[in-house]
Write a structure and sequence with these properties.
alpha/beta, OB fold (Dihydrolipoamide Acetyltransferase, E2P), 2 helices
Length: 122
């Protein structure tokens, strides 16, 4: 009986240690260094090839429906697609300066940007 209680206690402690280790790991962040994304203007993005990773700063002017928005900077406008789950609770109005990152998508009507992250521009 004492032996099974010892094994049960040891097992419980091992499970607790495993759980704490993985919980702490789940809360830690990832790489915080520079990214390899090219900072471009809307006009430059319109000329880039499909799947090019970019970063842009500007404003979301309006919603076009179906997770698509009109994004603008001083050089022009481009359609961006921002999935509902990529907003992360961040609310934007047309006067909030934002930085978006994502990949260029070639479409029939011109390039669009599939947005991966959006945040307030510094």
């Amino acid at each position: 009986m004492t032996r099974s209680l010892t094994f049960t206690a040891a097992g419980a402690l091992s499970l607790l240690a495993f759980s704490l280790t993985h919980t702490a790991g789940a809360q830690s962040g990832g790489f915080a260094g520079p990214d390899n994304l090219r900072q471009v203007t809307v006009a430059e993005a319109a000329e880039l090839p499909d799947d090019t990773g970019v970063k842009m700063r500007g404003y979301i002017a309006r919603s076009l429906g179906d997770e698509k928005y009109e994004f603008s900077d001083d050089s022009g406008t481009i359609v961006v697609e921002i999935d509902d789950d990529d907003w992360g609770g961040f609310e934007v109005t047309p006067d909030v300066h934002v930085e978006i990152t994502g990949e260029i998508e070639e479409e029939r009507n011109g390039n669009e940007l599939d947005v991966e992250t959006i945040r307030r521009a510094e």
